[in-house]
């Protein structure tokens, strides 16, 4: 079946540190991959996405590359800020899905300290 | 612009009591609608989705039910809550007809069943 595995948190970093949050997936065919972010007290919002192998999604300084050979979609940022503190969810949309159903990972809490 | 409203934000209910969570979407028509749940230590799990009025698909067997009495209204219900129903419930919508369209989430309801 389809599933997403994320590294467990919390991840605690100092401001301006480099961030990596690992995400791997299991799926048939070619799923689309997403990162969603949930800031404190808010709902989830799309951070970035990639729809085919070797695509790189990017937004707000965050990047993730769709690696089919390693079935991964790791989230990276070169220099985190306190305002990046949030829960980050990796998700996949199964190939051929017509209803936009997403399968989410468990989420990773990122805490950035000044 | 489109907005999604979800209420209440927090709810504490005794075991065996009924439940009704409401979600409404504004600024769009004929959306796909979703209910997700995030239990402690687990990822977001899709509970129900709907592609139209009166059309409900259940993803997992459970104690909950969903209804869509109007195009932009999605209700999550239970006749008798269980302790295991505790969690964070998120409503979401997506535009129909576009592949890889992102989901727009409400701010969520934290349900505690005691």
Major sheet attributes of chain A: 6 strands, mixed
Number of helices of chain A: 0
Element order of chain A: H for helix, E for strand:
EEEEEEEEEEEE
Strand content of chain A: over 45%
Number of helices of chain B: 0
Q: Assign an overall shape of chain A.
A: globular
Secondary structural class of chain B = mainly beta
Tell me, rounded to a whole number, the average pLDDT of chain A. 92
Number of strands of chain A: 12
Please provide a written account of the structure.
The complex is a heterodimer of chains A (114) and B (114). Chain A is 0% helix and 49% strand. The mean pLDDT of chain A is 92. Chain A is an all-beta fold. In chain A, strands 2, 5, 6, 10, 11 and 12 form a 6-stranded mixed beta sheet that branches. In chain A, strands 3-9-8-7 form a 4-stranded antiparallel beta sheet, with no helix packed on it. Chain A has a two-stranded antiparallel ribbon with strand order 1-4. With 114 residues, chain B is mainly beta. The radius of gyration of chain B is 14 Å and the shape is globular. The A-B interface holds A 4, 6, 32, 34, 36, 41-46, 49, 51, 89, 91, 93, 99-107 and B 4, 6, 32, 34, 36, 38, 41-46, 49, 51, 57, 59, 90, 92, 94, 100-108.
